[in-house]
Design goal:
The complex is a heterodimer of chains A (about 90) and B (about 400).
Chain A lengths: L1 E5 L13 E5 L3 H11 L4 H4 E2 L2 E2 L3 E5 L2 E2 L15 E6 L8
Parallel strand pairs in A: 1-7
Antiparallel strand pairs in A: 1-2, 3-4, 5-6, 5-7
Chain B lengths: L1 E2 L6 E3 L1 H8 L6 E4 L3 H4 L8 E2 L5 H8 L7 E4 L4 H12 L5 E4 L2 H7 L12 H6 L1 H4 L5 H10 L1 E5 L5 H10 L4 E5 L24 H12 L4 E5 L8 H5 L5 E4 L4 H14 L3 E7 L2 E7 L7 H4 L21 H18 L8 E6 L4 E6 L37
Helix pairs in contact in B: 9-10, 9-14
Classes of the chains: A alpha+beta (about 90), B alpha/beta (about 400).
Chain lengths: ~90, ~400
Protein backbone atom coordinates (compact mmCIF):
# COMPACT_ATOMS: atom_id res chain seq x y z
CA UNK A 1 0.00 0.00 0.00
CA UNK A 2 1.18 3.48 -0.76
CA UNK A 3 0.41 5.74 2.13
CA UNK A 4 1.05 9.42 2.75
CA UNK A 5 2.19 10.45 6.21
CA UNK A 6 1.68 14.10 7.06
CA UNK A 7 4.44 15.41 9.28
CA UNK A 8 3.41 18.09 11.77
CA UNK A 9 5.50 21.25 11.74
CA UNK A 10 6.99 20.49 15.15
CA UNK A 11 8.53 17.23 13.85
CA UNK A 12 9.89 18.49 10.55
CA UNK A 13 13.39 19.02 11.87
CA UNK A 14 13.50 15.22 12.06
CA UNK A 15 12.31 14.79 8.46
CA UNK A 16 14.66 17.30 6.86
CA UNK A 17 11.78 19.70 6.44
CA UNK A 18 9.50 17.27 4.57
CA UNK A 19 5.81 18.04 5.11
CA UNK A 20 4.54 14.78 3.65
CA UNK A 21 6.32 11.52 3.15
CA UNK A 22 5.14 8.70 0.86
CA UNK A 23 5.67 5.38 2.60
CA UNK A 24 4.69 1.74 2.15
CA UNK A 25 2.86 -0.57 4.54
CA UNK A 26 -0.45 -2.25 5.17
CA UNK A 27 -0.84 -1.13 8.78
CA UNK A 28 -0.08 2.09 10.60
CA UNK A 29 2.79 0.32 12.32
CA UNK A 30 4.36 -0.68 9.01
CA UNK A 31 3.84 2.72 7.52
CA UNK A 32 5.50 4.42 10.48
CA UNK A 33 8.27 1.84 10.46
CA UNK A 34 9.03 2.74 6.88
CA UNK A 35 8.98 6.40 7.89
CA UNK A 36 11.31 6.01 10.85
CA UNK A 37 13.67 3.85 8.83
CA UNK A 38 14.12 6.79 6.52
CA UNK A 39 14.18 9.35 9.30
CA UNK A 40 15.58 7.51 12.33
CA UNK A 41 15.60 10.60 14.53
CA UNK A 42 11.84 10.69 14.31
CA UNK A 43 11.53 7.44 16.25
CA UNK A 44 12.41 8.89 19.64
CA UNK A 45 9.93 11.71 19.10
CA UNK A 46 6.91 9.51 18.43
CA UNK A 47 7.47 6.15 20.13
CA UNK A 48 7.51 5.13 23.76
CA UNK A 49 7.40 1.64 25.25
CA UNK A 50 7.03 0.00 21.86
CA UNK A 51 3.94 2.01 20.92
CA UNK A 52 3.02 5.54 20.04
CA UNK A 53 3.97 7.97 22.79
CA UNK A 54 0.91 9.23 24.68
CA UNK A 55 1.61 12.77 23.59
CA UNK A 56 1.43 11.81 19.93
CA UNK A 57 -1.79 10.83 18.20
CA UNK A 58 -2.11 9.27 14.77
CA UNK A 59 -5.14 9.56 12.51
CA UNK A 60 -5.91 7.38 9.52
CA UNK A 61 -8.20 9.11 7.08
CA UNK A 62 -9.45 11.37 9.83
CA UNK A 63 -9.99 8.75 12.55
CA UNK A 64 -7.86 8.38 15.67
CA UNK A 65 -6.10 5.01 15.54
CA UNK A 66 -6.77 4.60 19.26
CA UNK A 67 -10.46 4.25 18.39
CA UNK A 68 -9.57 1.74 15.65
CA UNK A 69 -6.94 -0.99 16.07
CA UNK A 70 -4.09 1.17 17.27
CA UNK A 71 -0.87 0.68 15.36
CA UNK A 72 -2.36 -2.45 13.80
CA UNK A 73 -5.04 -0.37 12.05
CA UNK A 74 -5.09 -1.24 8.38
CA UNK A 75 -4.37 1.41 5.82
CA UNK A 76 -5.70 1.47 2.30
CA UNK A 77 -3.81 2.37 -0.83
CA UNK A 78 -3.93 6.15 -0.87
CA UNK A 79 -4.64 6.51 2.86
CA UNK A 80 -3.33 9.55 4.69
CA UNK A 81 -1.84 9.17 8.14
CA UNK A 82 -1.65 12.36 10.17
CA UNK A 83 0.75 12.52 13.08
CA UNK A 84 -0.32 14.98 15.73
CA UNK A 85 1.83 15.64 18.76
CA UNK A 86 0.60 17.78 21.65
CA UNK A 87 1.28 21.36 20.68
CA UNK A 88 1.13 24.12 23.23
CA UNK A 89 1.79 26.94 20.82
CA UNK A 90 -1.04 29.33 21.39
CA UNK A 91 1.10 32.40 21.27
CA UNK A 92 -0.02 34.42 24.23
CA UNK A 93 3.53 35.67 24.51
CA UNK B 1 -58.74 22.11 15.08
CA UNK B 2 -61.20 23.68 12.70
CA UNK B 3 -60.67 24.62 9.11
CA UNK B 4 -61.99 27.93 7.86
CA UNK B 5 -64.46 27.45 5.07
CA UNK B 6 -62.90 27.61 1.64
CA UNK B 7 -59.40 27.64 2.99
CA UNK B 8 -56.87 25.04 3.99
CA UNK B 9 -55.47 27.23 6.74
CA UNK B 10 -55.94 25.46 10.03
CA UNK B 11 -57.01 27.69 12.88
CA UNK B 12 -56.46 26.85 16.51
CA UNK B 13 -56.77 28.62 19.82
CA UNK B 14 -53.79 29.50 21.99
CA UNK B 15 -54.18 26.44 24.22
CA UNK B 16 -54.07 24.08 21.26
CA UNK B 17 -51.18 26.09 19.83
CA UNK B 18 -49.17 25.59 22.97
CA UNK B 19 -49.84 21.86 22.99
CA UNK B 20 -48.70 21.72 19.39
CA UNK B 21 -45.51 23.61 20.23
CA UNK B 22 -44.68 20.98 22.80
CA UNK B 23 -44.99 18.17 20.26
CA UNK B 24 -41.93 16.70 18.63
CA UNK B 25 -40.97 18.02 16.17
CA UNK B 26 -42.72 21.30 16.86
CA UNK B 27 -44.03 23.47 14.04
CA UNK B 28 -42.01 26.47 12.90
CA UNK B 29 -43.39 29.35 14.95
CA UNK B 30 -43.59 32.72 13.23
CA UNK B 31 -44.60 36.06 14.71
CA UNK B 32 -45.82 38.35 11.91
CA UNK B 33 -46.14 41.54 13.97
CA UNK B 34 -43.86 44.56 13.83
CA UNK B 35 -40.56 44.75 15.76
CA UNK B 36 -41.96 47.26 18.28
CA UNK B 37 -44.78 44.84 19.18
CA UNK B 38 -42.37 41.90 19.30
CA UNK B 39 -40.19 43.75 21.77
CA UNK B 40 -43.06 43.99 24.22
CA UNK B 41 -43.30 40.22 24.42
CA UNK B 42 -43.53 37.21 22.17
CA UNK B 43 -44.03 33.45 22.34
CA UNK B 44 -40.82 31.56 23.23
CA UNK B 45 -39.15 30.02 20.19
CA UNK B 46 -40.84 32.32 17.70
CA UNK B 47 -39.07 34.04 14.84
CA UNK B 48 -40.07 37.57 13.95
CA UNK B 49 -41.13 37.94 10.31
CA UNK B 50 -43.30 41.07 9.96
CA UNK B 51 -46.29 40.56 7.68
CA UNK B 52 -44.86 42.76 4.92
CA UNK B 53 -41.76 40.57 4.67
CA UNK B 54 -43.37 37.13 4.99
CA UNK B 55 -43.34 36.20 1.30
CA UNK B 56 -39.75 37.31 0.94
CA UNK B 57 -38.33 35.79 4.13
CA UNK B 58 -40.38 32.69 4.92
CA UNK B 59 -38.06 30.56 2.78
CA UNK B 60 -35.13 31.09 5.13
CA UNK B 61 -37.20 30.70 8.30
CA UNK B 62 -39.11 27.63 7.10
CA UNK B 63 -37.18 26.06 4.23
CA UNK B 64 -39.14 22.81 4.48
CA UNK B 65 -42.60 23.44 3.03
CA UNK B 66 -43.94 20.16 4.35
CA UNK B 67 -43.25 21.13 7.93
CA UNK B 68 -46.20 22.83 9.70
CA UNK B 69 -45.80 26.58 10.17
CA UNK B 70 -47.70 28.15 13.05
CA UNK B 71 -48.30 31.87 12.67
CA UNK B 72 -49.58 34.43 15.11
CA UNK B 73 -50.02 38.15 15.57
CA UNK B 74 -51.90 40.21 18.15
CA UNK B 75 -55.45 39.13 17.33
CA UNK B 76 -55.09 36.52 14.60
CA UNK B 77 -56.05 38.72 11.63
CA UNK B 78 -52.63 39.51 10.18
CA UNK B 79 -51.36 36.01 10.78
CA UNK B 80 -54.38 34.59 8.92
CA UNK B 81 -53.38 36.65 5.89
CA UNK B 82 -49.79 35.45 6.28
CA UNK B 83 -50.98 31.83 6.54
CA UNK B 84 -53.01 32.22 3.37
CA UNK B 85 -49.97 33.65 1.63
CA UNK B 86 -47.97 30.62 2.72
CA UNK B 87 -50.63 28.34 1.34
CA UNK B 88 -50.30 30.15 -1.98
CA UNK B 89 -46.56 29.55 -1.82
CA UNK B 90 -47.16 25.83 -1.52
CA UNK B 91 -46.76 25.29 2.20
CA UNK B 92 -48.53 22.09 3.22
CA UNK B 93 -49.73 23.14 6.65
CA UNK B 94 -49.84 26.84 7.43
CA UNK B 95 -51.71 27.28 10.74
CA UNK B 96 -53.04 30.33 12.47
CA UNK B 97 -53.43 31.05 16.18
CA UNK B 98 -56.98 32.37 15.89
CA UNK B 99 -57.08 34.51 19.01
CA UNK B 100 -53.48 35.58 18.62
CA UNK B 101 -51.38 36.84 21.49
CA UNK B 102 -54.48 38.26 23.17
CA UNK B 103 -55.78 34.72 23.70
CA UNK B 104 -52.28 33.50 24.62
CA UNK B 105 -51.92 36.14 27.33
CA UNK B 106 -55.45 35.59 28.62
CA UNK B 107 -54.42 32.00 29.35
CA UNK B 108 -51.28 33.24 31.12
CA UNK B 109 -49.07 31.19 28.80
CA UNK B 110 -45.32 31.93 28.85
CA UNK B 111 -43.98 35.01 27.10
CA UNK B 112 -40.48 36.18 26.35
CA UNK B 113 -40.15 39.85 27.09
CA UNK B 114 -36.82 40.93 25.70
CA UNK B 115 -35.15 43.87 27.32
CA UNK B 116 -35.12 45.49 23.95
CA UNK B 117 -32.13 47.16 22.37
CA UNK B 118 -31.89 50.93 22.53
CA UNK B 119 -31.61 52.89 19.26
CA UNK B 120 -27.80 53.02 19.44
CA UNK B 121 -27.58 49.26 19.77
CA UNK B 122 -30.17 48.73 17.06
CA UNK B 123 -27.86 50.63 14.70
CA UNK B 124 -24.57 49.17 15.96
CA UNK B 125 -25.77 45.57 15.68
CA UNK B 126 -28.07 46.03 12.69
CA UNK B 127 -26.10 43.54 10.57
CA UNK B 128 -26.60 40.94 13.29
CA UNK B 129 -30.26 41.75 13.69
CA UNK B 130 -30.82 41.04 10.00
CA UNK B 131 -29.66 37.44 10.43
CA UNK B 132 -32.67 35.26 11.25
CA UNK B 133 -30.64 32.87 13.45
CA UNK B 134 -29.42 35.79 15.54
CA UNK B 135 -31.91 38.64 15.59
CA UNK B 136 -32.62 40.81 18.59
CA UNK B 137 -32.95 37.83 20.92
CA UNK B 138 -29.53 36.55 19.89
CA UNK B 139 -27.96 39.96 20.23
CA UNK B 140 -29.40 40.32 23.72
CA UNK B 141 -27.92 36.94 24.52
CA UNK B 142 -24.51 38.09 23.35
CA UNK B 143 -24.81 41.26 25.41
CA UNK B 144 -25.46 39.08 28.45
CA UNK B 145 -22.72 36.57 27.60
CA UNK B 146 -19.52 36.27 29.61
CA UNK B 147 -16.41 34.99 27.87
CA UNK B 148 -12.97 34.45 29.31
CA UNK B 149 -9.92 34.87 27.10
CA UNK B 150 -6.82 33.04 28.25
CA UNK B 151 -4.04 35.07 26.68
CA UNK B 152 -4.18 38.43 24.95
CA UNK B 153 -1.57 37.50 22.36
CA UNK B 154 -1.72 36.17 18.82
CA UNK B 155 -4.95 34.18 19.17
CA UNK B 156 -6.50 36.33 21.88
CA UNK B 157 -6.09 39.48 19.79
CA UNK B 158 -8.45 38.71 16.91
CA UNK B 159 -10.75 36.77 19.22
CA UNK B 160 -11.04 39.72 21.62
CA UNK B 161 -11.59 42.21 18.81
CA UNK B 162 -14.31 40.23 17.08
CA UNK B 163 -16.06 39.22 20.29
CA UNK B 164 -16.02 42.81 21.48
CA UNK B 165 -17.27 44.09 18.14
CA UNK B 166 -20.02 41.47 18.20
CA UNK B 167 -21.24 42.88 21.49
CA UNK B 168 -20.28 40.12 23.93
CA UNK B 169 -21.21 41.91 27.13
CA UNK B 170 -18.41 40.75 29.40
CA UNK B 171 -14.91 39.82 28.31
CA UNK B 172 -12.45 38.58 30.91
CA UNK B 173 -8.81 38.67 29.85
CA UNK B 174 -5.96 36.85 31.59
CA UNK B 175 -2.41 37.74 30.66
CA UNK B 176 0.62 38.49 32.81
CA UNK B 177 2.79 39.95 30.05
CA UNK B 178 3.60 43.42 28.83
CA UNK B 179 3.51 44.46 25.19
CA UNK B 180 6.82 43.79 23.48
CA UNK B 181 7.84 45.05 20.04
CA UNK B 182 8.18 41.47 18.78
CA UNK B 183 4.44 41.01 19.47
CA UNK B 184 3.21 43.63 17.05
CA UNK B 185 3.81 41.57 13.89
CA UNK B 186 0.68 39.57 14.79
CA UNK B 187 -0.97 40.72 18.02
CA UNK B 188 -3.34 43.22 16.48
CA UNK B 189 -4.96 44.11 19.78
CA UNK B 190 -1.86 46.07 20.79
CA UNK B 191 -0.27 49.14 19.30
CA UNK B 192 3.18 50.64 19.20
CA UNK B 193 2.03 53.22 21.73
CA UNK B 194 1.32 50.42 24.21
CA UNK B 195 4.88 49.04 24.24
CA UNK B 196 5.87 48.17 27.78
CA UNK B 197 2.30 48.40 29.07
CA UNK B 198 0.51 45.39 30.53
CA UNK B 199 -1.28 43.53 27.76
CA UNK B 200 -4.50 43.40 29.73
CA UNK B 201 -4.51 47.20 29.99
CA UNK B 202 -3.68 47.64 26.32
CA UNK B 203 -6.49 45.20 25.53
CA UNK B 204 -8.93 47.04 27.76
CA UNK B 205 -8.24 50.39 26.09
CA UNK B 206 -8.61 48.98 22.62
CA UNK B 207 -11.82 47.08 23.42
CA UNK B 208 -13.41 50.00 25.23
CA UNK B 209 -12.68 52.30 22.32
CA UNK B 210 -14.09 49.72 19.93
CA UNK B 211 -17.29 49.01 21.83
CA UNK B 212 -18.37 50.70 25.06
CA UNK B 213 -21.08 48.04 25.52
CA UNK B 214 -18.39 45.57 26.63
CA UNK B 215 -17.34 45.21 30.25
CA UNK B 216 -13.68 44.24 30.35
CA UNK B 217 -12.43 42.34 33.40
CA UNK B 218 -8.67 42.05 33.52
CA UNK B 219 -6.47 39.52 35.31
CA UNK B 220 -2.84 40.54 35.12
CA UNK B 221 -1.54 37.22 36.32
CA UNK B 222 -0.63 33.76 35.14
CA UNK B 223 -3.17 31.04 35.70
CA UNK B 224 -2.06 28.74 38.48
CA UNK B 225 -3.65 26.07 40.63
CA UNK B 226 -3.96 28.80 43.26
CA UNK B 227 -5.99 31.36 41.33
CA UNK B 228 -7.85 29.33 38.72
CA UNK B 229 -10.88 28.34 40.79
CA UNK B 230 -11.51 31.91 41.92
CA UNK B 231 -11.40 33.10 38.30
CA UNK B 232 -13.54 30.23 36.98
CA UNK B 233 -16.10 30.80 39.73
CA UNK B 234 -17.12 33.98 37.95
CA UNK B 235 -19.67 32.09 35.82
CA UNK B 236 -18.17 32.12 32.32
CA UNK B 237 -20.21 30.89 29.39
CA UNK B 238 -17.19 30.12 27.23
CA UNK B 239 -13.40 30.07 27.62
CA UNK B 240 -11.29 31.00 24.61
CA UNK B 241 -7.94 29.31 25.13
CA UNK B 242 -5.03 30.95 23.38
CA UNK B 243 -2.44 29.97 25.95
CA UNK B 244 1.13 29.46 24.86
CA UNK B 245 2.29 26.74 27.23
CA UNK B 246 1.41 23.28 28.48
CA UNK B 247 0.93 24.10 32.18
CA UNK B 248 -1.81 26.62 31.35
CA UNK B 249 -3.43 24.34 28.77
CA UNK B 250 -3.80 21.57 31.33
CA UNK B 251 -5.02 23.89 34.07
CA UNK B 252 -7.63 25.37 31.72
CA UNK B 253 -8.73 21.91 30.64
CA UNK B 254 -9.12 20.47 34.11
CA UNK B 255 -10.88 23.58 35.38
CA UNK B 256 -13.26 23.60 32.41
CA UNK B 257 -14.31 20.02 33.12
CA UNK B 258 -14.79 20.65 36.83
CA UNK B 259 -16.60 23.96 36.29
CA UNK B 260 -18.49 22.68 33.23
CA UNK B 261 -17.49 25.47 30.85
CA UNK B 262 -16.78 24.82 27.16
CA UNK B 263 -13.32 25.71 25.88
CA UNK B 264 -12.58 26.93 22.38
CA UNK B 265 -9.05 25.72 21.92
CA UNK B 266 -6.62 27.07 19.34
CA UNK B 267 -2.95 26.58 18.69
CA UNK B 268 -0.54 27.72 16.01
CA UNK B 269 2.96 27.01 14.76
CA UNK B 270 4.63 28.65 11.78
CA UNK B 271 2.13 28.20 8.94
CA UNK B 272 -0.23 25.76 10.64
CA UNK B 273 -2.96 26.01 13.19
CA UNK B 274 -5.60 23.88 14.82
CA UNK B 275 -8.86 24.61 16.53
CA UNK B 276 -11.49 22.57 18.34
CA UNK B 277 -14.15 22.91 21.03
CA UNK B 278 -13.84 20.93 24.25
CA UNK B 279 -17.34 20.78 25.65
CA UNK B 280 -17.42 18.90 28.95
CA UNK B 281 -19.35 15.64 28.79
CA UNK B 282 -20.63 16.24 25.24
CA UNK B 283 -17.24 15.67 23.66
CA UNK B 284 -13.66 14.91 24.54
CA UNK B 285 -11.45 17.10 26.70
CA UNK B 286 -7.82 17.93 26.05
CA UNK B 287 -6.71 15.05 28.28
CA UNK B 288 -8.75 12.60 26.19
CA UNK B 289 -6.31 13.52 23.43
CA UNK B 290 -3.18 13.96 25.46
CA UNK B 291 -3.49 12.63 29.03
CA UNK B 292 -0.14 14.15 30.01
CA UNK B 293 2.13 16.80 28.56
CA UNK B 294 5.24 15.52 26.82
CA UNK B 295 8.39 15.28 28.91
CA UNK B 296 10.44 18.49 28.72
CA UNK B 297 13.19 16.95 26.59
CA UNK B 298 10.64 15.98 23.93
CA UNK B 299 8.50 19.10 24.00
CA UNK B 300 8.77 21.07 20.78
CA UNK B 301 11.75 23.31 21.01
CA UNK B 302 11.01 26.98 21.31
CA UNK B 303 14.02 27.93 19.27
CA UNK B 304 12.54 26.38 16.13
CA UNK B 305 9.30 28.29 16.54
CA UNK B 306 7.99 31.30 14.75
CA UNK B 307 4.60 32.06 13.32
CA UNK B 308 3.31 33.78 10.24
CA UNK B 309 1.64 36.97 11.47
CA UNK B 310 -1.71 36.36 9.81
CA UNK B 311 -2.04 32.75 11.02
CA UNK B 312 -3.30 33.62 14.52
CA UNK B 313 -5.70 35.99 12.75
CA UNK B 314 -7.27 33.02 10.97
CA UNK B 315 -7.28 30.64 13.93
CA UNK B 316 -8.27 33.26 16.53
CA UNK B 317 -11.14 34.37 14.31
CA UNK B 318 -12.39 30.81 14.00
CA UNK B 319 -12.20 30.59 17.79
CA UNK B 320 -14.30 33.76 18.09
CA UNK B 321 -16.81 32.30 15.66
CA UNK B 322 -17.10 29.08 17.67
CA UNK B 323 -17.45 31.07 20.90
CA UNK B 324 -20.32 33.09 19.40
CA UNK B 325 -22.03 29.92 18.18
CA UNK B 326 -21.79 28.38 21.64
CA UNK B 327 -23.24 31.49 23.28
CA UNK B 328 -26.06 31.66 20.75
CA UNK B 329 -26.72 27.92 20.65
CA UNK B 330 -26.67 27.88 16.85
CA UNK B 331 -24.92 25.81 14.22
CA UNK B 332 -22.68 22.81 14.71
CA UNK B 333 -19.75 23.59 17.00
CA UNK B 334 -16.35 21.96 16.55
CA UNK B 335 -17.09 19.50 19.36
CA UNK B 336 -15.27 16.21 18.74
CA UNK B 337 -13.63 17.59 15.62
CA UNK B 338 -10.19 19.09 15.26
CA UNK B 339 -9.86 21.48 12.36
CA UNK B 340 -6.34 21.76 10.96
CA UNK B 341 -5.43 24.72 8.81
CA UNK B 342 -2.38 24.82 6.60
CA UNK B 343 -1.74 28.37 5.41
CA UNK B 344 0.87 27.34 2.83
CA UNK B 345 -1.38 24.79 1.20
CA UNK B 346 -4.47 26.91 1.85
CA UNK B 347 -6.21 23.76 3.05
CA UNK B 348 -8.42 22.71 5.94
CA UNK B 349 -8.40 19.13 7.21
CA UNK B 350 -10.60 17.66 9.90
CA UNK B 351 -9.92 14.74 12.21
CA UNK B 352 -12.38 13.14 14.62
CA UNK B 353 -11.74 13.44 18.34
CA UNK B 354 -13.47 11.01 20.66
CA UNK B 355 -13.98 10.87 24.37
CA UNK B 356 -11.66 8.50 26.13
CA UNK B 357 -13.57 6.46 28.72
CA UNK B 358 -10.24 6.13 30.55
CA UNK B 359 -9.56 9.88 30.48
CA UNK B 360 -7.89 10.83 33.76
CA UNK B 361 -10.17 13.86 34.15
CA UNK B 362 -13.47 13.38 32.31
CA UNK B 363 -13.43 9.58 32.11
CA UNK B 364 -15.47 7.09 34.09
CA UNK B 365 -12.90 6.71 36.86
CA UNK B 366 -10.94 9.93 37.02
CA UNK B 367 -7.48 9.64 38.49
CA UNK B 368 -6.75 13.36 38.45
CA UNK B 369 -9.03 15.21 40.84
CA UNK B 370 -6.97 18.24 41.68
CA UNK B 371 -4.97 20.73 39.69
CA UNK B 372 -1.49 19.83 38.54
CA UNK B 373 1.11 22.58 38.21
CA UNK B 374 3.32 21.24 35.45
CA UNK B 375 6.79 22.68 35.16
CA UNK B 376 7.22 25.28 32.47
CA UNK B 377 9.23 23.54 29.77
CA UNK B 378 10.29 26.17 27.48
CA UNK B 379 11.51 29.42 28.88
CA UNK B 380 11.80 32.34 26.57
CA UNK B 381 14.91 34.47 26.77
CA UNK B 382 12.82 37.52 27.66
CA UNK B 383 11.94 38.64 31.14
CA UNK B 384 8.39 37.52 30.51
CA UNK B 385 9.41 33.97 31.28
CA UNK B 386 6.86 32.41 28.98
CA UNK B 387 7.28 30.14 26.03
CA UNK B 388 7.43 31.70 22.64
CA UNK B 389 6.11 29.61 19.79
Amino acid sequence: MNVTVRIPPTLRTETAGEREVAVAGSTVREALQDLTTRYPQLAQRIYADGGLARFVNAYVDGEDVRTLDGLETHVRDGSTVILLPAMAGGDAS
Amino acid sequence: METTAGSRVEELDAGAAQALLESDPPPVLVDVREPAEWNQGHIPGATLVPLGTVVERIGEVAPDRDRPVLLYCRSGARSLRAAEALRELGYARPMNVAGGLVDWEARALPLVVPSSLDPDKLRRYSRHLLIPELGEEGQLRLLEARMLLVGAGGLGSPAALYLAAAGVGTLGIIDADTVDDSNLQRQVLHSTAALGHPKVESARERIESLNPDVDVLTYEERLTSENIDAILDERWDVIVDGADNFPTRYLVNDASVWHDVPVVHGSIFRFEGQVTVFKPREGPCYRCLFPQPPPPELAPSCAEGGVLGVLPGVIGSIQANEALKLALGIGTPLVGRLLLYDALEASFTEVALRRDPDCPVCGENPTITQYVDYVEFCLAPSAGGVSRP
